[in-house]
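Shapes recur. One chain:

:::
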Amino acid sequence: MTVSANEVKTKGVSLFANLLDKFDELIINVRGKDKFVVIDIERYKELRANELDLAYIQTKQDIKDGNYKTLTAKEHISDILNEL
């Protein structure tokens, strides 16, 4: 469901509660362009947990494949500074 920024401005956040009862997400359109997505907090927590699970799985795979390096703190800071 797409709503305009002007609708949000005039109706306030109560607009979100009403629409999120009917739709999983709301897209806020600003000057004709989709700019923001609103989801309820439980959906956000679910998506965030999935994102963290995927990062964990990828990290475990990197470790298994040897795609990491062991550095001292000084070496790590040096690497970071070299990247800048």
The CA atoms of residues 62 and 68 lie 7 Å apart. The chain has a mean pLDDT of 93. The helical segments are 5-11, 14-20, 41-65, 73-83.
